[in-house]
Design brief:
Blueprint (H helix, E strand, L loop, with lengths): L8 E5 L3 E7 L8 E8 L28 H22 L6 E5 L1 H10 L2 H4 L2 E5 L8 H13 L1
Parallel strand pairs: 1-4, 4-5
Antiparallel strand pairs: 1-2, 2-3
Length: 146
């Protein structure tokens, strides 16, 4: 049976924000404390999509509007993985647990560096961003115990 070691980090994320937590308690009774939070910053959209140059006589063509929340979420994941990579190379954590919605978990896997990938001890594909810290700790312990 595995436990969450003291000093391990837990990242809880969804498309809009990520919370980085650290276990400050013993392995058998984790006590998660918030150490960082990253929020996706969605840019304001213009009032209408851009236009293509005239493709031919009498023809007009509009560009598709950008999915700004999705782009902001991808930017947030890149920022998160960069911060985690720096912390991993600095030796700030040895074990990492990722708790994220399935789409965010896939984006995290694609963006993480080798320093972070080598420290991931568990992944939980659930969106627990709005849950209290004790419930997150319980969910992580159940995954590690399985």
């Amino acid at each position: 049976m595995a436990y969450l070691p003291k000093g391990a980090w837990v990242v809880v994320a969804d498309q809009g924000r990520a919370i980085v937590l650290e276990n400050t308690g013993p392995a058998m009774a984790p006590d998660l404390r918030r150490i960082d939070e990253i929020a996706a910053e969605v840019a304001e959209a213009t009032d209408r999509p851009g236009r293509m140059p005239d493709p031919g006589p009498g023809q007009r063509s509009a560009l598709e509007e950008a999915d700004l929340p999705r782009l902001a979420g991808e930017r947030m994941i890149r920022d998160l993985t960069a911060r985690l990579g720096t912390a991993a190379r600095d030796g700030r954590f040895d074990a990492l647990v990722i708790v994220a919605a399935p789409q965010v978990l896939g984006a995290f896997r694609a963006a993480r560096c080798d320093a972070v990938a080598g420290r991931v001890v568990a992944e939980l594909d659930r969106n627990l961003i709005s849950q209290p810290l004790p419930k997150i700790a319980d969910a992580v312990q159940r995954v590690l115990a399985a």
